[in-house]
Amino acid sequence: MTKPGNLLIVLTVALLPALTACPRTSPIHNVSNAVATSKPVKLEEVRTAIVRGGQSRGWEMTPGAPGHILGTLYLRGNLAQVDIQYTTTTYSITYKNSQGLDYDGTNIHSNYNGWIRNLDKAIAQQLSTL
């Protein structure tokens, strides 16, 4: 006869692979109208600060039209792309595309949200030097 404590161990060991196989997803995190700076600056200065911030975290930053940058991160076989819209006073980071991150239209692998928070912090840090 199996003791109750042993049964708990057997069930835990049996269920562990199923629990760890589930992808960790959460609602996608976008940054909307974050304050770039309260000082008078040129649009080019904001662009440079955003590019530097992204590059410091391993993002490829591709400036497009004035006020727009495409950010791309390749990490551990995954791809994340964001649109960064900016003015002389605010910036926004919005999901654009991904591969390997279980995006379902609403939720995405939790690592993505961490990458976006780190990108936001790096950009804010660069902008604070203006």
Topology record:
Blueprint: H1 4-21, E1 25-27, E2 31-35, H2 43-56, E3 60-63, E4 68-75, E5 78-86, E6 90-99, E7 107-109, H3 110-127
Antiparallel strand pairs: 1-7, 2-6, 3-4, 4-5, 5-6
Report on the architecture of this protein.
It is a single chain. Strands 2-6-5-4-3 form a five-stranded antiparallel sheet, with helices on one face. The protein has a two-stranded antiparallel ribbon with strand order 1-7. The chain is elongated and about 70 Å long. It has one domain (25-127): Kinase associated domain 1, KA1 (TATA-Binding Protein, 2-Layer Sandwich). Helix 2 packs across helix 3. It has helices at residues 4-21, 43-56, 110-127; strands spanning 25-27, 31-35, 60-63, 68-75, 78-86, 90-99, 107-109. Helix content is 38%, strand content 32%. The chain is an alpha+beta fold and 130 residues long.
Q: Write the element-wise H/E pattern from the N-terminal end onward.
A: HEEHEEEEEH
Distance between the termini: 72 Å
CATH H-tier superfamily: Kinase associated domain 1, KA1
Count of the separate structural domains: 1
Q: What is the count of β-strands?
A: 7
Low-confidence stretches: none
Name the helicity range. 25-40%
- The average pLDDT score comes to 89
